[in-house]
Specification:
Length: 266
Amino acid sequence: MPSPGTNGKSPLFYRLVLPLLVPALILVVWQVLSDKGFFRTSILPSPLVIAQTLQSLLASGELLGHLRTSLVRVFEGFAVGAILGTVLGTLMGLSRFWDRALSLVTGLLRPIPTIAWIPVLILWMGIDEGSKVTVIAVGSFWPVFMNVLQGVKGTDPKYLEVARVLEKNRWVVLSQVILPSALPSLFTGLRVGLGIAWASVVGAELIAASSGIGYMIMYAREVSQPDVMLVGVVTIGLTGLLMDFLVVQLEKRLFRWNQAAGEGSK
């Protein structure tokens, strides 16, 4: 139900200003308490100090260099994990045989935390890019796989019955009935998987890396630079927020296009 006085639409205040109020209030209180000496600067620098450090790291190119390295790893690993998750989820959702055959394996592997694979993969693959990309692929695989599996299994039986009555072949049923029905679940999996992929790369870089946002945070801790550490933490949050926003916008555009195409075919 829309809020009173909004005429069914969210005004600028609710869409933009209101979400920024709480962060702004936190920063103001944080800065005031820092100025009054409530926080030790060697442990928790003030927002102004962090902003100055951020500006310095951007000007030197150091932050963007580490961020670029992490993003490349994330997109490589996420692409592998998302593709495998989509394929396997679709296969098990369509086939009772494969669902039964692989249910025990997936049930055993799924509860294992992504971070638990890091030392194992480093042992198997070393500390090169392969181990980090594989960690990200593992982390992003499961949410995509589970959501696609449930989306395919949740296809409305009425649509499948209509397709059978019209004697549509399997490819038409898959491409025009099952996959479009599973799209919302797929995008939910992609959003969750991308977030886990971003968290996974930072975890891998904290343990074994010579570049990347995680490495920058770990190195700053070793040389006692809390302002650089917090710049890295903020960068992780903002980048994750931006990636989620882009996936949501892609989802909206795709669904709008599908809806327009469906209306045009009537």
